[in-house]
Amino acid sequence: MKERLDQLYTEFNFERFKQVDPCGAVYQLMDHTDLQLDIEIGALLVAMISWGSRKVIVPTAIHMLRDEMKWHPADFVMNGKFEESYKDAKNECVYRTLNVPTFKAVCRNLQQQLNGYPTMESRLEGLTTKETIAEICEWLAPAKIGTMDKSACKRVCMFVRWMTRENLPDLNIWKRRDQRDLYAVMDVHVCALTRHILTNKRPTWKACEELTDIFRSWDADDPLKYDIALMRMADNG
């Protein structure tokens, strides 16, 4: 399997990928702001809604960043502008099961947690990557994205990968973190593709850790490149 994934990674086309992946919405955000807290908050909220069909996720993310946040997520969250957002949302729906009151509750959590910090990176400084993932899961708790005792924390692991990893399609915003410490982005699709090499057959945190250890044994310097390769494998059926 390693050889197949290595091949898929070498064939990775970033320009094509960002047209269809939620990270592309974050790259659009970066065309409008270079403020780190803008990028961090925007990317986190995009990651939060990244489940289901990417054909629906991406336009939903663009609407959130462009129309609701005016391309300035830090101002939107830290100055409480989220309280007046999504006034025209049909049935108070932001995306799928995420409703407007829950979205605002998440924004209030972020406002409280980030108050007094210039960046999210500085707020999380000193925490290990695993501790960082657990902490962010608590911030997003109203949205019920899962915690390590019940899930693989897929969307938060993906966000931390976006922020940390040095190679495309990731952003490498957090310069003081080590990409060797990242955790696999584990969901039902990844679990299905890798179950023949896993002892844990369900998308749990134990399965995430097990797959991460395998990735690290394959490439200690850039283990999460195999996340990208697995996405390509999933896209290829």
Supply Rg.
17 Å
What is the first-to-last residue Cα distance? 15 Å
Q: How much helix, percentage-wise, in residues? A: 55-70%
What is the assembly state of the chains in this entry? single chain
List low-confidence stretches.
none
Strands in their spatial order, largest beta sheet: 1-2
Strand fraction equals under 5%
Number of helices: 13
Q: What about the largest sheet? A: 2 strands, antiparallel
Overall mean pLDDT: 96
Extended strand count: 2
Order of helices and strands: HHHHHHEEHHHHHHH
What form results from the Cα inertia axes? globular
Structural class comes to mainly alpha
Task: Provide a descriptive summary of the structure in words.
It is a single chain. The chain is mainly alpha-helical. Helices cover 55% and strands 2% of the residues. It contains 13 helices and two strands. A two-stranded antiparallel sheet has the order 1-2. A hairpin with a 2-residue loop joins strand 1 and strand 2 (98-99). Helix 1 (2-10) packs across helix 13 (225-235) and helix 3 runs antiparallel to helix 4 (36-48). The radius of gyration is 17 Å and the shape is globular. The protein starts with a helix and ends with a helix.
Summary of the model, kept short:
This protein has 237 residues and is mostly helical. The chain is 55% helix and 2% strand. The protein has a two-stranded antiparallel ribbon.
